[in-house]
Write a structure and sequence with these properties.
Pfam families: Metallophos. This is Calcineurin-like phosphoesterase domain-containing protein. By secondary structure, this protein is an alpha/beta fold. It has a single domain, classed as Purple Acid Phosphatase, chain A, domain 2, CATH 3.60.21.10. It contains 7 helices and 13 strands. It has a 6-stranded mixed beta sheet with strand order 4-5-6-7-9-8, with helices on one face. A 5-stranded mixed beta sheet has the order 3-2-1-12-13.
Length: 276
């Protein structure tokens, strides 16, 4: 199983947020960022694309239609899946993405290649923290019991975050931690913080990816820097090596100092081999 994990695209054609307008206006267009991903990744080796929330920045149904078409066009023929973030407005999301008129939580699950993938809607409108209500907790408990497959959990908000991003996690994490602290759960994969992190709680491993839009860095005095750092993650599970989560940087552009092809790498590695 190999997944292209994108998050926090924050697409909008006309942002009306005075705090983030200068940040989003300064970003390289999403289409160019997606093309950089295509330059680095072989889509033929992936099984799906997952976008973990803040797809649109409080925009319109047309914004959702536009970003959906862009993602599908860029990463075709891979199946694309979405979950909702705190800047996604549910009625607007449904109208733009599915043509439905509804305001329901967007929780769902599916099976692929003997993996059970569960997508949770942790979004709480007009709040940076996330939550699952009692109905969602009950749904999650039933869904977890469906099978004994390896499970991959995707949601926008990290369940836990430590002191680094303690204000950006879930408000009531205990029940969720209890349900997901399960040997069948390979990992929980999130976005929201715009900064990559790994959190481990007993059996549970949580991986937070870069944002595609912009980066956030918290420094020693508590100041938060909005940066041009952006990226994505490659999630891969193989029977012979287990789980690998590889964060990738899109920007800032790095300087290439040297390039080696696979044969050169093999030759280089052989120079370190020696006989006893």
């Amino acid at each position: 199983m190999k997944i292209l994990h994108l998050s926090d695209t924050h697409y909008t054609r006309d942002i009306d947020d005075p705090e983030l307008k200068p940040v989003l206006d300064a970003q390289v267009p999403l289409e160019k960022k997606f093309n950089q991903i295509l330059e680095h990744e072989n889509l033929d080796t992936f099984d799906l694309v997952m976008v973990t929330g803040d797809i649109v920045h409080e925009g319109t149904p047309e914004d959702y239609r536009t970003i959906k078409n862009l993602i599908e066009r860029t990463f075709s023929p891979l199946p694309i899946y979405f979950c909702l973030g705190n800047h996604d407005r549910k009625p607007v999301f449904y109208e733009g993405m599915t043509g439905e008129s509804k305001d329901a939580n967007y929780d769902y699950d599916f099976e692929m290649d003997h993996f059970h993938i569960i997508v949770l809607d942790t979004a709480k409108n007009y709040s940076h923290s996330g939550i699952l209500d009692s109905t969602q907790i009950e749904w999650l408990e039933r869904t977890m019991a469906k099978n004994n497959h390896k499970k991959l959990i995707f949601q926008h908000h990290p369940i836990i975050g430590g002191i680094y991003f303690d204000q950006f996690t879930m408000e009531e994490p205990d029940e969720v931690l209890h349900l997901l602290n399960n040997p069948n759960v390979v990992g929980v994969f999130t976005g929201h913080t715009h900064s990559p992190a790994i959190n481990i709680y007993q059996h549970l491993k949580q991986y937070t990816t870069y944002a595609v839009s912009f980066g956030l860095e918290k420094v020693k005095d508590g100041t938060q820097h909005f940066t041009d750092t952006c990226g994505y993650s490659v999630i891969e599970y193989r029977d012979d090596s287990g789980l690998t989560v590889a964060p990738r940087i899109i920007q800032p552009a790095y300087q290439i100092l040297k390039t080696t092809n696979p044969n050169q790498m093999k030759e280089l590695n052989s120079t370190y081999e020696f006989e006893d």
